[in-house]
């Protein structure tokens, strides 16, 4: 278990890391909201502070008083048990409080949480602080994906130059690695923080299978495009084809064509690197790619997406054999985001954190180049709807025999 000092350090480190990420952004950059699914940077800065004020300080601080009680509604994301929420799609309209005031509020809440921890760090408070840290880390990644999405709406295609993050892949010979088959233990065990959706630990059955030692690359994706993959319904799920047609999808989200394909990232708009993992694709695209690769890509007959249990069992035992399980792109799996057997949501407000989203989403495993340091686990379950593609999402292939 972390000592009080270590937890204090971790708390302040996570708070400071958020502020580091926006170094170089203007107040205008922090204000705008680019679509309903994304949030303004200022809202992220405020919401992670709301979490500490409403979920930690309100329950534990003597003589608690809101900095501003209206913020309890403005910066509530989806917690129905807390009360009213400002509509998600209107977060960019909140020109007040100012960015300056949000920073003042952050500092105020931070010092009050610090005081609370030094005063009496009970086991429940310790756990809530760890939840607050992990929550802020999740929003750090969202802050980056949302800024990237916002900047992509601007014809100037600005770079977020103070952030040097890349998902480039180390080039190595391709090979299939045998996965872990038989009865495998899935889910979190042991000490340390984990989300409720990672537990309880339980047995699952993996059939014999193999996993690719690398992620699907831009080069392979280019072959899919050039072979008309986005124009041929035979590769697509029905819902996926309807999505491709209605949204005019013809390439990964940030790809744009000049003489050659470019891709937009926080570094700006640059030519795609063929050996890098493809990123910002939806589940629909990942699934269509496997159907196409099965029939059309040399040496890839029989490929499919791995299940989340295949991914996890491998990561727990052999992560040194595949060096891009973490830190490049989240990897789509063929697993629905469902509760594990005997799953129980957390009690209280935190019960709304994960369990209520276990419908109509697919699980992604690993982590991305934008994931905060210390926020990756072999048991971590990320999840998004089948059409979402503003996150750093890619895929790793699996197959049943080689
Ligand atoms: Fe949140």
Task: Work out the count of structural domains.
Answer: 2
Task: Give the beta-strand count.
Answer: 13
Measured between the Cα atoms of the first and last residue, the distance is 44 Å
Spatial strand order of the main sheet: 1-4-13-8
Unreliably modeled segments: none
Order of helices and strands: HHHHHHEEEEHHEEEHEHEEEEE
Rg, Cα atoms, Å: 22 Å
Plain-language structure description:
This protein is of the alpha+beta class and about 400 residues long. It folds into 2 domains: about 5-150, Four Helix Bundle (Hemerythrin (Met), subunit A) (Up-down Bundle); about 175-400, Alpha-Beta Complex (paralog of FGE (formylglycine-generating enzyme)). It has 10 helices and 13 strands. It has helices spanning about 5-20, 25-30, 40-60, 70-75, 100-120, 125-150, 220-225, 240-245, 285-295, 310-320, and strands spanning about 175-180, 180-185, 200-205, 210, 255, 260-265, 270, 305, 330-335, 360-365, 380-385, 395, 400. It has a 4-stranded antiparallel beta sheet. It has a 4-stranded mixed beta sheet with strand order 11-10-9-12. The protein has a 3-stranded antiparallel beta sheet with strand order 5-6-7, with no helix packed on it. The model has no long low-confidence stretch (mean pLDDT about 95). Bound molecules: fe (ii) ion. Fe (ii) ion binds near residues 47, 77 and 139.
């Amino acid at each position: 278990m972390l000592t009080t000092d270590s937890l204090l350090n971790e708390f302040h480190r996570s708070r400071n890391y958020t502020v580091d990420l926006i170094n170089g952004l203007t107040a205008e950059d922090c204000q705008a909201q680019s679509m309903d699914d994304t949030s303004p940077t200022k809202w992220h800065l405020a919401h992670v502070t709301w979490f500490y004020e409403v979920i930690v300080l309100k329950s534990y601080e003597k003589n608690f008083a809101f900095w501003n009680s209206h913020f309890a509604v403005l910066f509530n994301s989806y917690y129905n048990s807390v009360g009213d929420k400002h509509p998600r799609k209107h977060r960019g309209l909140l020109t007040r409080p100012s960015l300056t005031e949000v920073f003042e509020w952050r500092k105020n809440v931070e010092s009050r949480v610090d005081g609370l921890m030094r005063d009496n760090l009970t086991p429940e408070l310790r756990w809530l602080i760890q939840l607050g840290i992990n929550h802020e880390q999740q929003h750090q990644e969202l802050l980056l994906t949302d800024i990237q999405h916002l900047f992509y709406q601007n014809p100037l295609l600005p770079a977020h130059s103070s952030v040097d993050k890349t998902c480039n892949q180390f080039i190595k010979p391709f090979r299939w690695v045998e996965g872990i088959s038989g009865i495998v233990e899935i889910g979190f065990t042991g000490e340390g923080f984990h989300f409720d959706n990672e537990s309880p630990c339980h047995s699952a059955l993996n059939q014999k299978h193999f996993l690719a030692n690398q992620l699907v690359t831009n080069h392979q994706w280019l072959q899919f495009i050039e072979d008309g993959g986005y124009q041929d319904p035979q590769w697509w799920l029905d819902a996926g084809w309807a999505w491709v047609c209605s949204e005019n999808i013809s390439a990964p989200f940030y790809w744009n064509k000049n003489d050659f394909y470019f891709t937009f990232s926080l570094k700006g708009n640059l030519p795609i690197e063929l050996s890098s993992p493809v990123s910002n694709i939806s589940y629909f695209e990942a699934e269509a790619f496997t159907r196409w690769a099965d029939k059309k890509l040399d040496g890839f007959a029989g490929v499919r997406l791995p299940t989340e249990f295949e991914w996890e069992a491998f990561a727990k035992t052999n992560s040194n054999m595949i060096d891009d399980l973490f830190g490049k792109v989240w990897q789509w799996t063929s697993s629905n985001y469902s509760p594990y057997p005997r799953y129980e949501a957390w009690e209280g407000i935190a019960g709304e954190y994960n369990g209520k989203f276990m419908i109509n989403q697919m699980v992604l495993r690993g982590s991305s180049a934008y994931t905060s340091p210390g926020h990756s686990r072999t048991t971590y379950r990320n999840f998004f709807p089948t059409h979402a593609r503003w996150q750093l999402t890619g895929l790793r292939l699996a197959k049943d025999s080689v």
